[in-house]
Amino acid sequence: MSVIRRNRIAIGLAAGLAVVLGLGVWSATGSGTNSKPVAQTETDLGVLGDYGDVGQPPVLQEPAQAPESPQQQAPEAQTPAAQPPAAQPPAAAPVSSLKLVGKAVDKMGMVVQDGDGRTMYRFDKDTPKPEGKSNCNNQCAVTWPPLLSDTIPQVEGIDSKLVSLITRADGKKQVAIDGWAIYAYSQDPKPGAWKGQGVGGTWFVIQPDGKRNVECLPPGVTAPAA
User: Fold this and answer.
1) Are 223 and 215 in contact (CB under 8 A)?
2) 113 with 190: CB under 8 angstroms?
3) What is the DSSP annotation of 30-79?
């Protein structure tokens, strides 16, 4: 064998060995182009597996929000507490249409008249204290009509503190001055007359202070003891 032939054989063997070695290296590294170690790829796949299928991009989760503190929570609308009904002012006392007037008249002096000018009288057999009581009932009340009213009358020339209402035997209310029930006289012919003065020695015109008027007494009637 010549030297040239031996050299060709050696070159061919060297080339074949190089091809074999190259194939071994290519097999060990996969495609020969991926330089990333296999162990590293498995670790990455494990991480990706936490979010879904391998090869899918990881889905980022929003961080859990901490619960709002009491100060951060929006205040709830407060329902106003039910308010108690407003207290109603007491009803005003009804105003009486009845009126009493204390005045001085000629010859008689101080008298009390109602709104129509009728002279008012008191009856000595009534009881003024501690609570006023009328003892003029039935036929007596026809001759001497009691001044009835459910309300305190308006007054003029009379101390309003002296005016009150008493309850009669029939339950009706009668006006009184200083506890004395007051009456009109059915035989007085006109307003301002006082024909009832001194009748029976027990009926007298009443004065604004509740006392009997003993002025201008009829003949035969004497002034009673005070």
Assistant:
1) no
2) no
3) TTSS--S-HHHHHHHHHHHHTTSSTTSPPPPPPPPPPPPPTTTSPPPPPP
Structure tokens at 102: 């204390």
d(CA 175, CA 212): 16
CB atoms inside a 10 Å sphere around CB 140: 14
> What is d(CA 213, CA 152) in angstroms, rounded to the nearest whole number?
23
pLDDT digits (tens, 9 = 90+) for 72-131: 555 555 665 666 666 665 444 455 789 999 999 999 999 999 999 999 999 999 999 998
pLDDT in tens, 162-198: 999 999 999 999 999 999 999 999 999 999 999 999 9
